[in-house]
Amino acid sequence: MFAVFKKELRSYFTNPLGYVFCAVYLAVSGFILGITTLYSGTVDVSGFFQVMIFASGILVPIITMKSFAEERRSKTEQLLMTAPISVTSLVIAKFAASYVLFAGTVLVGCVYFLPLTMFGTMNGAVTLGCIISMLLVGMCFTAAGIFVSTLTDNTVTAAVGTIALLGVMVAASLFNGIINFYPIRQALSWISVYGRYINFTYGIFDFSAVLYYVSLTVVFLFLAVRVHDRRRWA
Amino acid sequence: MIQIENLVKLYGEKTALEGISFKVGEGEIVGFLGPNGAGKSTTMNILTGYLSATAGTVKVGGIDVFEFPDEAKKKIGFLPEQPPLYNDMKVSEYLNFVYEIKKCKLNRKKHLAEIMQVTKIHDVSDRIIGNLSKGYRQRVGIAQALVGNPPVIIFDEPTVGLDPKQIIEIRNLIRNLGKNHTVILSSHILSEIQSVCNRVVIINEGRIIADEMTSNITKVANDSREYIVKICAPQREAASALRSLNGIVFVEATGERDADSYTFRIRSEAGVDIRKPLFYLLAEKGWPLVGLEAAGMNLEDVFVRIMDADAKASSKSKKA
Hints:
The structure holds two protein chains of two kinds. Chain A has twelve helices and no strands. By secondary structure, chain A is mainly α. Chain A has helices at residues 2-14, 16-38, 46-64, 66-73, 77-81, 87-109, 113-116, 124-150, 155-176, 182-191, 198-201, 207-233. The longest helix of chain A has 27 residues, at 124-150. By secondary structure, chain B is α/β, with parallel strands linked by helices. Chain B is built from eleven helices and 14 strands. The interface between A and B is medium-sized, with 23 and 31 residues.
């Protein structure tokens, strides 16, 4: 399992893909941070993270699209499947590699907050809460991307599919405001990744949200294992 | 070493394997022969644990592939139809990766160096796989199958797309591997099987239609009743003279012609050696014989013949 993890993480940096993700993420987050804090005259970064969750919906597919789709296309899947490793550990290893890249980039991106401290005191609880929630949301997104990648052998299809899926997950709460019917509102807010995030922006550590993100991640990884396993029986 | 019993595989409605059974003993090199779509790759993929079966059992070294996949997989080295290579890795990195995922417990450096020697890729060990030629890529694929020194090695069409020199090299390599491994090799190039394997399993439409020692099959092949003759004579007269021979069932001008000689394909009745009467006939007519060769001396024809016989038998049984 560790071997696959190592290989995956390495492949992000022998291909342009990892660099592209890092560069685009850091560029976009720098731009958004500038607008949401410096231009708005505040050192509160919760607004920045709210926008970055939307941006992640487009950026995460860059790192997850290849994970299984590319193995299938280039037939290297046969090597992995005939080696004595289980599908579960394969999925976990690939997920872990993608997530490490994502989390690493997010944490590096936090260096941007340093200049803000020159303009005022940042609220430690809010900032930390936002970073944690960003990492949790990213975890769900990565798992979702890995799942979509098991469905196809075309990386572009995987990327577009992931963007669509993440779009629905993120946008669900936006419809909340326009729909008045309570059960639907309730259902939308339940599937909404974004809605759970709000408490963190107040600096409250919402344990139920943590549980929600973790279980959603597990669900997606479980689906990925099932899809991958099922193909053997098709 | 390998026991396959009543293996059935359905792809949805389509039947890929109709219940095949065979055994491979230790140290055998078995050729797996069949046209495209016969079920060769499916069988190999099931054997290696890549696909599951609809019914039946597969045991490798006494271990059930479906019940204890991890144990069984450690006993098998597999080269799929398309070698499973990561184009962005160096050869040495790739073999190290394979070594790790196969959870080998040998002396890594020594073992990998040995494999690279055997497959003659030590001089490209620092090159990126994506930049290698087809022949080298194939050999890296074979090296990958050898990692961990598995007792059973399975090659799915190992020489497809290589040039003749490379084909000979790879065949020699496989023959050498057969000295201390059990090898299964699939191919539709029949001369390959003839030169490498000691046993042939012929498969068609998901069923085994022959399981013979290669020497037996070659014997059948040599019992040819078809010849290509080249005669210096007027074409029409020569054809009618050939038809008049006792025991001839079929004469056909192939249309080939050089200078003043014509070529014919002739077939005799079973049990008749047509060569002597042919000689006397031509001598009597005063037509020089400039070429005589047996047609269908190779496994291709045997293969086609067995398949035709099988098709006839199955259509008969369907009618009945």
